[in-house]
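Protein: Tumor necrosis factor receptor superfamily member 5
Species: Mustela putorius furo
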Amino acid sequence: MVLLPLRCVFWGSLLTAVHPEYTACREKQYPVNNQCCDLCPPGQKLVSDCTQTISTECTRCKEGEFLGTWNSERHCHQHKYCDPNLGLRVQREGTSETDTTCTCHEGLHCTSEACESCTVHSLCPPGLGVKQIATEVSDTVCDPCPVGFFSNVSSALEKCHPWTSCETKGLMEIQEGTNKTDAVCGPPPRMRALVVIPITMGILLAVLLVSACVRKVAKEPENKVMWMEHRKDPVEDMEESPVPPHSIAPVQETLHGCQPVTQEDGKESRISVQERV
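Structure follows.
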């Protein structure tokens, strides 16, 4: 029983002699060769470790590179590239201490927290309204329309709209709305009759006027044809029935005061005694 504790002490002493105790370093230091060296500040990378006589050597990151923490890195990280083919654009340019921040173009949002690619905002279908509009880093949040509200479009912006209040417009509700359709309003029975009767009378009057116009237009060509035929008949009769030559009364000539005088045939030519003298 006494030998077991002695063996433990022996092996512990041996291991301590072979492996010296680990040296604990302060914050912003790192262990190298049983000593603590200072870490390089953000924006700089490690060139060489410290020694007993020389401190840690660091150098600033090149343009397009960065290191954002206290480090012992020998290489800086490249700035992120915002690929426009993936819908990305630069939100904030990177520095030697910070990385480039990418975001999405309008109408798109990031597919992950790292925002390495973008996708189109989701649309809320009919029956669902937009509860939260999508941002550059989050998608659209949809919510079912409650009773009394509706949405009849697919949209990434439209919320649910309340049903139309027929009573406030002096109308009556003909059909109740749903989550996809609005309520349908109409005139009360009396008002409906007052509206239907004038419309019906107007339609009948229009039909009568159109019928009268059609009859008038159809009758005008017939009247015109009859008038032309009536006007043409006398001319044709005159042309077809020439006056016979014997119908013209013969004319005789007599002398009156040494001047010829014409008389119709069949009448006596009388010359007074005075004229003969």
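Remarks: Residues 14-21, 235-241, 243-277 have pLDDT under 50 and may be disordered.
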